[in-house]
Design goal:
about 200 residues, alpha+beta, Tetrahydropterin Synthase, Chain A, two-stranded antiparallel sheet, 8 helices, 5 strands, globular
């Protein structure tokens, strides 16, 4: 079907994508506006994945204090250029990450940051819990792995549901920002302090 200039303009206004990309998306979607938007979003996330290999050494250290100084967060978020580091969209993303850390108390950024000793400790707890609940021996390991995945969802920042929209994870929010900002973005490290807590040793 013929794609009109009007359709391209409308899609461009909604997504910020280039004219040729909008035309291609509409052609792929046979003129269906919603499908074309999905196509561009998927393409944007694919572009984001390609950018993930690029060096990110600029950025910001975001500081956030919550509950009248009861919780403090410091997070380093990196990007590729100083220009993006100073942009409002990037700063806003760094702030959202700090809010997430304050609200959801992650302990690690990504799965591979969890020490094997911590995972083994969690597995032991899950095993003995499954046995106490009288689960058959042949399915205990499956239950254990299910509980480990749930544990990771709670303690790994990138796996946590985003506090403002629980339909997406922080990793998806990160990829959306990589797609819209156009540079690789890396959540490098963070610390979270809560008044009166003891320091936890791994």
């Amino acid at each position: 079907m013929a794609i009109t200039t009007e359709q391209i303009k409308e899609l461009r206004a909604a997504t910020g994508a280039g004219i040729l990309d909008c035309r291609k998306a509409l052609e792929q979607a046979n003129g269906d506006f919603d499908k074309a938007v999905d196509y561009l979003r998927e393409k944007g996330l694919a572009t984001a994945a390609k950018r993930a290999d690029r060096e990110a050494s600029e950025g910001v250290v975001e500081l956030y204090s919550h509950g009248n100084g009861r919780v403090g967060v410091m997070v380093e978020v990196n990007c590729e250029t100083d220009f993006v580091a100073r942009s409002e969209a990037f700063r806003e993303f760094a702030h959202e990450v700090a809010l997430q850390i304050a609200a959801s108390s992650p302990r690690y950024i990504r799965d591979e940051d969890i020490p094997e000793s911590v995972l083994e400790h969690e597995r032991e707890i899950a095993r003995s819990r499954a046995r106490q609940e009288g689960k058959p021996e042949n399915i205990i390991e499956r239950i254990v792995e299910g509980r480990i995945e749930k544990f990771k969802d709670e303690v790994v920042l990138l796996r946590q549901p985003y506090i403002r929209n629980e339909d997406i994870t922080i990793e998806q929010l990160l990829m959306q920002n990589v797609g819209s900002i156009g540079e690789n973005i890396v959540i490098r490290r963070f610390v979270r302090w809560e008044l009166g807590e003891s320091t936890r040793e791994e």
